[in-house]
Design brief:
10% strand; 7 strands; three-stranded antiparallel β-sheet
Length: 354
Amino acid sequence: MGKKCFKSLLVAVFCLFLGFSAWAGGESGKTEKLDPAGIIMDHIKDAHEFHFFDVGNFHAVVPLPIIVYSPGKGFSVFSSSRFEHGHAAYEGYELKEGKIVSTDGSKVYDISLTRNVVQMILALTVLVLLFTGIAKKYKQGIGVTTAPKGWQNALEPVITFIRDEVAKPNLGAKANKYLPYLLTLFFFILINALFALLPGSANVTGNIAFTFVLGIISLVVILFSSNAHFWGHIFWPPGVPFLVKLILIPIELAGILIIKPGALIIRLFANMVAGHIIILSFISLIFIFAEMNTVAGVGFSPISVLFTAFMFLIELLVAFIQAFIFTILTAVFIGQAFEGSHDDVDGHADAIII
């Protein structure tokens, strides 16, 4: 199993190398100047196609559907391949710096299925199929009256861990009520983070819009879980001088409405983007050295491959860690929202404060 994983890792690294060949062969076959920052940002940001690599005039891409609306033209639906990688216009639209604009300067509403959206749908489909299959096995008694099989063996310990180490310590008697949401958060973030490690895939968890929506949903859950005791402490902190209360009230409100969801949003976004930037930076070092000297580029290649493979392994760990941190912070914030008085903590007095 270890050898198979290592081979798969090397294949992934090799495919990433191919992704950097775009700088070396333009349409004319001449060498272009390397732009590491531009290449890295192209791999990280959203796009209207899945781009794997370029070799000369050959582009290994999977085009995605373009769906745009313009008040003067109405709806238009066509393939992103019509733009010829940003070199051509189609039906009065063109692609500039990854954004669809109208050639006549009119307003354009882009509701296309970008690679982030498509990959998120694919990840969600895999997740639903996986867990519905596991649920059917439990209904049949497999894993209940007999030993669990297949994916049950892999996922049951994870589910138990989230229940026993995240939900129960922070939510007490209400743990089972919030467990479905916490498990959905954990596995949805995890599977999207793992999909992002595939060559040519989108870094969905490294997209601020993705983490923003997750953070807002968690904020809504936190607010709906709160009680009068919680808001009483927010708007009128007990045992605090009056003038200090005037300072604490806006700070407490900011903590609930801005700081807590902001911590969830920015932590996940920053960590996932940073990991991909580091991996792509190690790969680009080969081409940076090769531009200075061919021997230097070839000589640095083994070092770059080793560091890239190491970072891939680290990113696998980071995917689990970030999914866990987002989930446990959400559980902590929910637990704080419905926490009772000091002598009545509803069974979660030992809630973790982060």
